[in-house]
Design brief:
The chain is built from 6 helices and 9 strands, in the order βαβαββααβββαβαβ. The chain is α/β, with parallel strands linked by helices. The chain has a domain at 30-200: Rossmann fold, CATH 3.40.50. Strand 2 (38-42), helix 2 and strand 3 (69-73) form a beta-alpha-beta unit. The radius of gyration is 17 Å and the shape is globular. It binds 6-phosphogluconic acid. The site of 6-phosphogluconic acid has 16 residues, from helix 2 and strand 4. Residues 12-235 form the Glucosamine/galactosamine-6-phosphate isomerase domain.
Length: 256
């Protein structure tokens, strides 16, 4: 199988979430057959959260040995720990609080009410990522990284025409001018995201069609950040029909 970006189209958002959940469970079981642990990077956003809910509701859920799965985040909103807008809070409600994953396997960003400022929170997460890396390696092996995609083509908290989007000298960014509220966020940088073995992008709805079409047609990664995303082994766009409206036919994988 090549590392070319693949587009898998599903009838609607609910079907998409169910299909991604099933694929995630199967792939994670396979990874754990070959490795001691599986490392997953979660995304915020409604589609990413729907996928976590579908994993929770899957009858196959506990085929995964959750004790060997680690969870990180691609980005986080700079809000208090228990704010319902916090990606960690939404992921715990959707899945993490419902599976037997050890607390020490969950690696959230700091929250705005934990006594450090945004810049220090970015530095701390960058250090935690580096500390989790195998000896001699700069980064952990991220086996699956989920990303939602904004209508403007943003991924994580990397937004168009924003100098921080092309920042590649750090692992984690402090974002202070996000066009998507809240304005202050924390985000992995593009090189860290692209260090992932697999990047799974999940998007649904007609408002995503333009960004996806542009990205696959070769748009600038600074103008359409999702255009600059590519995993080391696999890059799969899981989309619904509405989001696929501007995807060239030859890029759409046959649906079984
Ligand atoms: O913290 C966030 O807001 C997300 O990480 C963000 O990147 C999100 O994934 C996209 O905006 C898509 O969101 P939807 O899936 O809700 O369209």
């Amino acid at each position: 199988m090549t590392n070319e970006r693949r587009v898998l189209v599903h009838a609607d958002k609910q079907t998409l979430a169910g299909a991604v959940a099933a694929r995630f469970i199967t792939k994670t079981v396979d990874i754990l057959d070959e490795q001691d642990a599986a490392t997953v990077v979660l995304t915020g956003g409604t589609v990413g959260t729907s996928v976590l809910e579908a994993i929770r509701e899957s009858p196959a859920r506990d085929m995964v040995d959750w004790s060997r799965v680690h969870f990180w985040w691609g980005d986080e909103r700079w809000v208090p720990k228990d704010d319902p807008e916090r990606n960690e809070r939404q992921a715990r409600d959707a899945l993490l609080d419902h599976i037997a994953v050890p607390a020490e396997n969950i690696h959230p960003f700091a929250a705005s009410d934990e006594g450090i400022d945004l810049q220090a929170a970015a530095a701390r997460y960058s250090e935690e990522i580096a500390e989790a890396a195998p000896f001699g390696q700069p980064l952990p092996r991220f086996d699956i990284t989920f990303l939602g995609v904004g209508a403007d083509g943003h991924i994580a908290s990397l937004f168009p025409a924003n100098p921080s989007t092309s920042e590649d000298g750090a692992n984690v960014l402090a974002v202070t001018n996000s066009p998507k509220p809240p304005p202050e966020r924390l985000s992995l940088t593009r090189p860290v995201i692209n260090s992932s073995e697999r990047v799974w992008l999940v998007l649904a709805g007609p408002d995503k069609a333009s960004a996806l079409g542009l990205a696959l047609a070769g748009a600038s990664r600074d103008e359409v950040p999702v255009a600059g995303i590519k995993g080391r082994r696999r890059t799969v766009f899981f989309v619904d029909r509405e989001a696929a409206a501007e995807v060239p036919e030859n890029l759409i994988a046959p649906s079984y």
